[in-house]
Each structure stands twice: as structure tokens, then as C-alpha cells.
Automatic annotation (TrEMBL), chain A:
An example Gene Ontology biological process: intracellular protein transport
Clathrin adaptor alpha/beta/gamma-adaptin appendage Ig-like subdomain domain ranges (all copies): 709-822
Protein name, UniProt field: AP-2 complex subunit alpha
Subcellular location field: Cell membrane; Membrane, Coated pit
Transmembrane segments: none
Membrane topology classification: Peripheral membrane protein
UniProtKB/TrEMBL annotation, chain B:
Family: Belongs to the adaptor complexes small subunit family.
GO cellular component: AP-1 adaptor complex; clathrin-coated pit
Keywords for the protein's UniProt record, in alphabetical order: Coated pit, Cytoplasmic vesicle, Golgi apparatus, Membrane, Protein transport, Transport
Protein name per its UniProtKB record: AP complex subunit sigma
Family matches, as PROSITE patterns: CLAT_ADAPTOR_S
Primary localization class, coarse: membrane
Pfam families: Clat_adaptor_s
Organism annotation: Solea senegalensis (Senegalese sole)
């Protein structure tokens, strides 16, 4: 037992601790503890009132027992009693017990809060500090409720002792973290910020943690701290190592405070005030210069403190990302650390360089260190350092060095630690895809990946290689050849069998000409792996076999034989059995033509965010990969697969944004300022992309409330799209009823919360239209799509559109948007076929002036006959041939079905190609319908 | 900082300080996991490791490991020096501190820590000022003892 140290000794406690230490076994220890617990319990329950010292001693013993890992269920009351002792050590032990063992017994909290209140108002700084420490240690909501308004006052009061201010600042920080709603700085803000100027370095050190946290949450209110922080930092950085006395740590002036100041500045953009910015840049340069000076001490503490400031300064430089000179200097400094003998520095340099690699100013400078980093990956003895090296290689990779980096990562994989293999595999797969220039390299890389680390190749990775091979016909033959070769290894990974089965099933024909890989050889090779594989792989192989039957009729008999054998057709696994039975039947019943249709080559996959990237992000958690990186790779991905299928729709939308005239636009000429886009439409492009031919794409970010005009002549498409959300529409109409499917796609990797949609019919529209829907699920996972069905009933004709309002939270921010739903009166058209004679008869019947609506307008889109026909058909009417004496003109007829009545409509469209004009005439049995249809249609051509 | 743990080479926990609210069960689980991870590391390895979504900074002094968990954006090197300063404070107070001092005077180790770090942030980094606060408290206690004795007489 050591000599009793300073302060008060508690002999009984020391004896007890010795006893415990002398226990030979866990059982003996428990026995001794139980004995002590029984003793303490009896003392606490005893009739004799305990004196303060004994109470303190027993409470302390209980604390010790608790810290050993045993449960303590009594003694709280005694500890609370100690709080009101006037002896400092008793009070201190009481507070310690409460801090460690607090329990949300409300009765007790009230008593504790009472004691704290007394100490806070005692004006005795030591007692006040104890009370503040307790609040900071417990930090419960009850305490925040009781003290959150009191502590700011203590913090800024002129007569508060420095030590109390320090405790108050951090106490407030803790309460702010637990209950931000209860800590209202308001009137105190400016005085708290000015603590940065305090004479006492300790006060500044404590206050800056509070200020940093508050600035992160309320940057605007605290922005005056920037200039104060810069001048404080400048004073420290330029001070001699002895100026700050005890705040100098191993010849480094105030390292903790310096780091905190640099961290605080990272809550803000670069200072706007030129003088402040100049001063700050000077500070950063001084810090970088100091790193080059010879050390003032050989102690590691000296270099650690100095480098802590340096790394924080580099973080700030990276955060600003605007000073190329500083960025490059930072990179050079880190480059020196890459070869430092201290493992810690190498680790941090690798980590910090990772963020430098993403800055355009320093990316090239980082790349010059590639050999050192590769060397680190190979030779570092600590796995966490190797992990950093792998991360950095990933971050510095671009087209110029992708082949080298991927090769190095692949060779490292062979010996890599199990803990990081999966992530390495994902990274290799992403780099190979992102920077693939020739696809044979990509296919080789992924197959190598499966060969080397097959167990760590997740489904996403091999799905992806298949998606890419299917979408790129220039690589299919090579892929077939390569998987065929890979499968010849006596032991190959099951993932290889999956990829092999799929690719040969699709593209085996491309290598079948070579007798060494004739159809039967291919089949036998695949089938030799069959029995070693799991059920899902076998299922995949069975599908490959049936595809073989289609590709190579000569294998039919052999394969049918295999399907027919008991181990397939009577397999105990339902899925396998079903496939065997169905494929066997299919192959024997279906004609070659049917077989060829059923087993046709897979169509290209629609382009979407790389599934591997999504997986890596999930693994790393949101925020691990920057949004830009994501967008980058998406773009690259699109390129890789020969264009994204989203193109036409977005283009269509932007085009119509740019050129949709307002309904009140003048008929002739005035709108000539608007772009006239009359490029001829390509033959194949009908409904969907007629608009995409038009004009340069305008940014599609604005909420397009007339977006629905694009849907007058079509029922399906993308209604809205921005960075976060895509809304697609499919709709169908019959008589006066319609059904609309809305697809809400979350384009991000982050969940949308509180997702609600509301469809409303404003004003009179609710009398005309009846729209019913069910509420959607409130959560939309990242990358997921949810669907909503609207049932629509047209009661009577209408002019307005229903509104769709969408609200959700994305990363905490509320998103709110309102769109017009493309439900227009023409959707309820029933086409009416009629002969020329009938048409003109009815046309004459509808001769009252109100029944007719007419517009003459300039062509906004192609005047190609086929395009026009497609649009008119999309309108829902019947397009009548041989009615109009002028074959250039179009006439249509239809009946609009509403619940209350039917409205007959006749339409005549007269194009004038020379003048690039149209005349549109509508005659309907109801005036309002003529007007509305005319408005809608005048904007479609 | 989210928490600080002191444990021996045998894995015995000597001090635990939590700056975030966690249940006892979670605390025990974290302790067990982290002690195991850190003890398994070899001497020349770096002092930082990624653990769950935190960074762990640790250093061994004689038979004791000092281990801090900080948030991702926190500075590793300065945390390493937080540990060192705490060791210096213990050393100065106990006079060449050893594991036994911390076992037998665990409450003092907590008091010193509270003067140095509060709510997981540095409250006072000057060695003199921290020790002055602790010694004042010791002195105060002696005076109070003296006074009470005086009254008792």
C-alpha cells in the first residue's frame, strides 16, 4: 500500500482497496465486495447518525465498487447529503458520486439541483466550480432546464473569477449539446464572442470550444468571431516561445488554443475583409515556415504540438481551397512527412493528403508522390497506415495513372488484411469502371479481382461487370473469351462461375467458332462447376443452359439430358426444380422462333448510379464520398455505357422551358424574340423526344409549373427532376375516368424523411374533377423509388390543373415544391371516326360564334407531317384522312367524356410551311371546351 | 472528446470518463471492445485508429494505456498531447505517479481530470493553474477540518 498521499487519507478505503487487490480469484473479489456492501448498507440503515467523514468514506467505497464494474443500487441519498456539507472534500466526493452514478430518479434530481443552486449562489469560487463540473458531467435535460438560463450570466459577469468562467463556458457547451433548445444566447452573444479577447489564456481556451460549437450552428450570429480569432491567432503565432509562460508547451506557444482557433475559422469562408485575410494568410505562412525550422527540442511532445498546429492549419487551407500557393506548400510539407520516421506523422500525412487530392489546385502536386504512397502500401507495418495509403491512391487516381494504381491495388489485395479487403475490392472496381479507356482492361481487372479476392467481391461488383458487358457490344466477344479462359482454372471462385455463366449464356456464340471453345466445350466447362456451386449459382447456370439451347441448337440434346436427370427435375430445392421443369418443357415444346424470342439477348440496362459506388457509400456512411465525386462518376458512368437514357427527357423538359410561350402571348410576330426551333425531327423519334430537337438546353432547375404542357399529347414521362428528386408519370384514361401513377425517385443516397404529398384541386376545379389517392410512406430510402396512384374522375369540363404539393426533409432541410399535374381536358377524349360528309355536316352545325375558337401562331417545333400526326393522335382524337380537301391540313374528331355530359369536338389544323405558321380552329358543343383546347394546343406545335 | 479510458496491460480499467450520455451496458461493451483492440496492437504501430465512427488516440505510459475517443474532425496530435499533459499533471501531483497511485487515489485522478478537461474540452492547459486549483482545494479542506475541530472543542 503506498503512503497516504496529500489531502485527506481515508484509511478504511485504502484497506478495502488493498483487500480487493489481494483477492486471488474473481469469486473471492465478489465475496469481499458483498461483505463490504452489506457492511455499508447496515451503516446507512443504522440508528446511529453517521458523521460526514464516515459517510464520505462509504460513498467513496461504493464508487470504487461501481467503477470495478459492479452494480450499485443504494447510497444515492447519502451522496446527495454530502453535497450540502460545508466541508469541501465531502462535497467533492458527493459530487463525484453523482457525476459517475447519476440516475434519473426525479426526486433525487430535484435535491441535487437544489444543492447545485446553493453552491452556484454561494459566491465561493471553489464551490461554484464543483457545482458547474457536476452539471457539465451529468448534462441531463433536467439540469439544462434548471440552469441553462443562469450559466450565461455567470459566464459574462464582470466579477466572476476566471476559473469559474472557464467552468461555466464548458458547462454551457455541454448543456447546449444535450438541449440546444434550452440554451438561448441571444443578448449574451456579443459578450461571449468577446471572451476571445480575454486577458486570461485559460478563459480563451475554454470559451473557444463553446464559441466554435455555437458558430457551427448559428454562423451568422457569431461571425464577428472571425476577425477576433485571426488577431488572437496572429498574436500567438508571432510570439516568442517564452512569452506565454505556462501556456507554452515544450517551446510551442499555446498549441491547444492555436488548434482551436484554426478549427473555429473552419466554420467560416475566407474573411472578406482584405486586412483580416492578409493577416490570416501571414499566420498560415508563418506556421508553414516554422515547420521547416530546426526543432527547439528533441522531445516528441515538441514536434507533436508543433505539427498539431501545422495539420490544423493545412485543414484550414484545404477548407478555403482558394490559395493555390498555400495548397501546394501544404502538399510539399505533407510529402516530407510521408517518409518521416514517426509512424504517426506518416499516417496523418496520408490522411491529410487525401483531402488535398480533391482540390484542383493541389491534385497534380499530390500525384507526384505516387511512388512513395505505393511504397507505403507495400511496406508499412501497420494496417491502419496501409489503409490510409490505399485511400490516398484512390483519391489521387485519374485517367493518367489509373492503370498503375489499379495494378498496384490489385497486387496489394493478394496479401491485404482481411479487414480492408472488401473496401479495397470496391475501390478497385470503381476505379476500373470510372477510368476505363478500353473495356478489355476493365473486364480483365474485374476478373482478376474475382480471382484474387473472390470472397470479397460483393454482388454489386459482378452485377456491374455484367451490366457493362451487356451495354457495350465492343467488349462482349473479349469478355466471353476471357471468362472462358478463367473458368478453365481447376478451382475458380463461385463468383467467377456466375459471371462466366451469365456471359457465356449471352455471348458464348461469339467464341463458338473456335473449336477449342465450341458450344459443347463451353457447356461442359460450365457444367463441370455446377455441382460445387450454391443454389443461386446453379439457378443462374440453368438459365445459361436454356440460353445455350437457343444459341446452339446442337447442344439441345445434351442439355435436355442434364435437365431431365433426377438431380435437376426432382431437386429438393423448389427454385431449381421449377427451372429444370420449365426449361425442359420450353425447349421441347417451343418452336425455334418462339425460343429465339423468349431467350433473346438481354436488352441494355438503363443507366443509373453505379451500384458499387452506392455500396461503398453505404459502407463509409453518408458524407464519406463527396457529392461532386458521385456526380463525376455518374457522368463517367453514362459515358461508359454510351449515353444515359435520361437524356431525352431532361432535354425535352428544358427545351420546353425555354420555348414555351405564355398563354397570353401575342399571335403574330411579337414573340419572335423567343427562340424558333424548327429543326426537322428524325424519323424514328415520335412522341417522346420531339421536343428534344428544340434549341439549346436551358437549366432545368426552376420549378416548372407549366411542365405539364409537355404532357398534353403524351401520358408518360418525367414530370419533374432536380438534384434530389425525380418524378415520373404514367397515366391511362378511359371514358371519364383516369388513373395516374406517380413515381417519386430519390436520386441521392440519403433517406428522405417526412415525405408527404398532397393533391388538391384549387377553386372551382374541385367541382369539376374528383382526384383520390392514398398517402405515401413517409420514408424514401436513398436510391429508392416509391409509387403513388391517383384515381381521377372528370365530373364536368375544366380549365385548371390539379396541384401536387410535395414536402420532405433532406439532410434536415425541408424541401417543398408544388407542381401542376398534367390532367387536361383532352385526356378524356374518345376518338370518333367519321367520313368527310359527316364531318362537314357537323362542322356546320357548330356554327355559333362562341362555339368556335381559333388561333394563328408561329411554329415552335418541327412542322414535319409525321411528328404532327403523332401529336394529334396523342391528343386523344381520331385523325381523319381524306376529309379536308387540302391534304396538308389535318382534321380530327372526338368526344370528351365527362360524368355530366359529353362534348363533341372537331379540330382543324392548317400548317403553312412557308410562313412557318399554323391556323388552328376548334368547334365544340360547349364554348368553354373550345377555348381551353385551343389554348392548350396552340402551345404544342 | 467523447470519452477517456485508462487501463492496465492486463486490461483492468483504472479510470473511465464519459462525455456523452451512454447506458452502463453500452459503456461496458465499448470498454471491452476497445481495450481488446488497443492491447492487440504492437508497440511500433501508430497511435491512432479508426474505430466505429470515431477516432481513437492512445498512448502507453509504463503499465498504463491512456485512450481517448475523439470525433472525426478532431486533431489527433493535440489529443495525444492532452494525454501527455494529463500524465504530467498526475505525475506532478503524486510525485512520480505509478499505477498504484491511481488505484488508491482514484478520486484524485478524477478531480485532476475535471480541472483539466470539462465536457470533453480543454478547460485549463496550464499545468501550474490546474495544480494550483487542486492544491487550493486540499488546503481548503485542511482549513475546514481545522475550523470544525476548533468549533468542536
Amino acid at each position: 500500500m503506498p503512503a497516504v498521499s496529500k489531502g485527506d487519507g481515508m484509511r478504511g478505503l485504502a484497506v478495502f482497496i488493498s483487500d480487493i487487490r489481494n483477492c486471488k480469484s474473481k469469486e473471492a473479489e465478489i465475496k469481499r465486495i458483498n461483505k463490504e456492501l452489506a457492511n455499508i448498507r447496515s451503516k446507512f440503515k443504522g440508528d446511529k447518525a453517521l458523521d460526514g467523514y464516515s459517510k464520505k468514506k462509504y460513498v467513496c467505497k461504493l464508487l470504487f465498487i461501481f467503477l470495478l464494474g459492479h452494480d450499485i443500487d443504494f447510497g444515492h441519498m447519502e451522496a446527495v447529503n454530502l453535497l450540502s456539507s460545508n466541508k469541501y472534500t465531502e462535497k467533492q466526493i458527493g459530487y463525484l458520486f453523482i457525476s459517475v452514478l447519476v440516475n434519473s430518479n426525479s426526486e433525487l434530481i430535484r435535491l441535487i439541483n437544489n444543492a447545485i443552486k446553493n453552491d452556484l449562489s454561494s459566491r465561493n469560487p471553489t464551490f461554484m466550480c464543483l457545482a458547474l463540473h457536476c452539471i457539465a458531467n451529468v448534462g441531463s435535460r433536467e439540469m439544462a432546464e434548471a440552469f441553462a438560463s443562469e450559466i450565461p450570466r455567470i459566464l459574462v459577469a464582470g466579477d466572476t473569477m476566471d476559473s469559474v468562467k472557464q467552468s461555466a463556458a464548458l458547462c454551457l457547451l455541454r448543456l447546449y449539446k444535450t438541449s440546444p433548445d434550452l440554451v438561448l444566447m441571444g443578448e449574451w452573444t456579443s459578450r461571449v464572442v468577446h471572451l476571445l479577447n480575454d486577458q486570461h489564456m485559460g478563459v480563451v481556451t475554454a470559451a473557444i470550444s463553446l464559441i466554435t460549437c455555437l458558430s457551427q450552428k448559428n454562423p451568422d450570429e457569431f461571425k464577428t468571431c472571425v476577425s477576433l480569432a485571426v488577431s488572437r491567432l496572429s498574436r500567438i503565432v508571432s510570439s516568442a516561445s517564452t512569452d506565454l509562460q505556462d501556456y507554452t508547451y515544450y517551446f510551442v506557444p499555446a498549441p491547444w488554443l492555436s488548434c482551436k482557433l484554426l478549427r473555429l475559422l473552419q466554420c467560416y469562408p475566407p474573411p472578406e475583409d482584405g486586412a483580416v485575410k492578409g493577416r490570416l494568410v501571414e499566420c498560415l505562412e508563418t506556421i508553414l515556415n516554422k515547420a521547416q525550422e530546426p526543432p527547439k527540442s528533441k522531445k516528441v511532445q515538441h514536434s507533436n504540438a508543433k505539427n498539431a498546429i501545422l495539420f490544423e492549419a493545412i485543414s484550414l487551407i484545404i477548407h478555403y481551397d482558394s490559395e493555390p500557393n498555400l495548397l501546394v506548400r501544404a502538399c510539399n510539407q505533407l510529402g516530407q512527412f510521408l517518409q518521416h520516421r514517426e509512424t504517426n506523422l506518416r499516417y496523418l500525412a496520408l490522411e491529410s493528403m487525401c483531402t488535398l487530392a480533391s482540390s484542383e489546385f493541389s491534385h497534380e502536386a499530390v500525384k507526384t508522390h505516387i511512388e512513395t504512397v505505393i511504397n507505403a502500401l507495400k511496406t508499412e507495418r501497420d494496417v491502419s497506415v496501409r489503409q490510409r495509403a490505399a485511400d490516398l491512391l484512390y483519391a489521387m487516381c485519374d485517367r493518367s495513372n489509373a492503370k498503375q494504381i489499379v495494378a498496384e491495388m490489385l497486387s496489394y489485395l493478394e496479401t491485404a488484411d482481411y479487414s480492408i479487403r472488401e473496401e479495397m475490392v470496391l475501390k478497385v472496381a470503381i476505379l476500373a469502371e470510372k477510368y476505363a479507356v478500353d473495356y478489355s482492361w476493365y473486364v480483365d481487372t474485374i476478373l482478376n479481382l474475382i480471382r484474387i479476392a473472390g470472397d470479397y467481391v460483393s454482388e454489386e461488383v459482378w452485377y456491374r461487370v455484367i451490366q457493362i458487358v451487356i451495354n457495350r457490344d465492343d467488349v462482349q466477344g473479349y469478355a466471353a473469351k476471357t471468362v472462358f479462359e478463367a473458368l478453365q482454372a481447376p478451382a475458380c471462385h463461385e463468383n467467377m462461375v456466375k459471371v462466366g455463366g451469365y456471359i457465356l449464356g449471352e455471348f458464348g456464340n461469339l467464341i463458338a467458332g473456335d473449336p477449342r471453345s465450341s458450344p459443347l466445350v463451353q457447356f461442359n466447362l460450365l457444367h463441370s462447376k455446377f455441382h460445387l456451386c450454391s443454389v443461386p449459382t446453379r439457378a443462374l447456370l440453368l438459365s445459361a443452359y436454356i440460353k445455350f439451347i437457343n444459341l446452339f441448337p446442337e447442344t439441345k440434346a445434351t442439355i435436355q439430358e442434364v435437365l431431365r436427370c433426377d438431380s435437376q427435375i426432382r431437386n429438393s430445392d423448389v427454385e431449381l426444380q421449377q427451372r429444370a421443369v420449365e426449361y425442359l418443357k420450353l425447349s421441347s415444346i417451343a418452336s425455334t422462333d418462339v425460343l429465339a424470342t423468349v431467350l433473346e439477348e438481354m436488352p441494355p440496362f438503363p443507366e443509373r448510379e453505379s451500384s458499387i459506388l452506392a455500396k461503398l457509400k453505404k459502407k463509409k456512411g453518408p458524407g464519406a464520398i463527396s457529392v461532386t465525386e458521385l456526380e463525376d462518376s455518374k457522368r463517367e458512368g453514362g459515358e461508359l455505357n454510351g449515353g444515359s437514357d435520361r437524356g431525352p427527357d431532361t432535354a425535352a423538359m428544358s427545351a420546353s422551358n425555354a420555348s414555351t410561350p405564355s398563354p397570353s402571348a401575342d399571335l403574330l410576330g411579337i414573340r419572335s424574340a423567343a427562340p424558333i426551333n424548327a429543326a426537322p425531327a428524325g424519323a424514328g423519334s415520335l412522341l417522346v423526344d420531339v421536343f428534344s430537337e428544340a434549341g439549346p438546353a436551358a437549366p432545368s432547375t426552376a420549378v416548372n409549373d407549366d411542365g405539364f404542357l409537355r404532357f398534353v399529347c403524351k401520358n408518360n414521362g418525367v414530370l419533374f427532376e432536380n438534384q434530389l428528386l425525380q418524378i415520373g408519370i404514367k397515366s391511362e384514361y378511359r371514358q371519364n375516368l383516369g388513373r395516374m401513377y406517380l413515381f417519386y425517385g430519390n436520386k441521392t443516397s440519403v433517406q428522405f424523411a417526412s415525405f408527404t404529398t398532397n393533391v388538391s384541386c384549387p377553386g372551382e376545379l374541385q367541382l369539376n374533377l374528383n382526384v383520390q389517392t392514398k398517402q405515401v410512406e413517409p420514408l424514401v430510402e436513398g436510391g429508392a423509388q416509391i409509387q403513388q396512384v391517383l384515381n381521377i374522375e372528370c365530373l364536368t369540363d375544366f380549365s385548371d390543373a390539379p396541384l401536387l404539393n410535395i414536402k420532405f426533409r433532406y439532410g434536415g432541410a425541408l424541401q417543398n415544391l408544388t407542381l401542376k399535374l398534367p390532367v387536361t381536358i383532352n385526356k378524356f377524349f374518345q376518338p370518333t371516326e367519321m367520313a368527310s360528309h359527316d364531318f362537314f355536316q357537323r362542322w356546320k352545325q357548330l356554327s355559333q360564334p362562341q362555339q368556335e375558337a381559333q388561333k394563328i401562331f408561329k411554329a415552335n417545333h418541327s412542322m414535319d407531317t409525321e411528328v404532327l400526326k403523332a401529336k394529334l393522335l396523342g391528343l386523344g382524337t381520331a385523325l381523319l384522312d381524306n376529309v379536308d380537301p387540302n391534304p396538308e391540313n389535318f382534321v380530327c374528331a372526338g368526344v370528351i367524356q365527362t360524368k355530366s355530359q359529353q362534348v363533341g369536338c372537331l379540330l382543324r389544323l392548317e400548317p403553312n410551311a412557308q410562313a412557318q405558321m399554323y391556323r388552328l380552329t376548334l368547334r365544340c358543343s360547349k364554348d368553354s371546351v373550345s377555348q381551353r383546347l385551343c389554348e392548350l394546343l396552340a402551345q404544342q406545335f | 472528446m467523447q470519452f477517456m479510458l485508462l487501463f492496465s496491460r492486463q486490461g483492468k480499467l483504472r479510470l473511465q470518463k464519459w462525455y456523452v450520455p451512454l447506458s452502463d451496458k453500452e459503456k461496458k461493451k465499448i470498454t471491452r471492445e476497445l481495450v481488446q483492440t488497443v492491447l492487440a496492437r504492437k508497440p511500433k504501430m501508430c497511435s491512432f485508429l479508426e474505430w466505429r465512427d470515431l477516432k481513437v488516440v492512445y498512448k502507453r505510459y509504463a503499465s498504463l494505456y491512456f485512450c481517448c475517443a475523439v470525433e472525426n474532425q478532431d486533431n489527433e496530435l493535440i489529443t495525444l498531447e492532452i494525454i501527455h499533459r494529463y500524465v504530467e499533471l498526475l505525475d506532478k501531483y503524486f510525485g512520480s505517479v505509478c499505477e498504484l497511485d491511481i488505484i488508491f487515489n482514484f478520486e484524485k485522478a478524477y478531480f485532476i481530470l475535471d480541472e483539466f478537461l470539462l465536457g470533453g474540452e480543454a478547460q485549463e492547459t496550464s499545468k501550474k493553474n490546474v495544480l494550483k486549483a487542486i492544491e487550493q482545494a486540499d488546503l481548503l479542506q485542511e482549513n475546514v477540518d481545522f475550523q470544525t475541530r476548533l468549533f468542536a472543542v
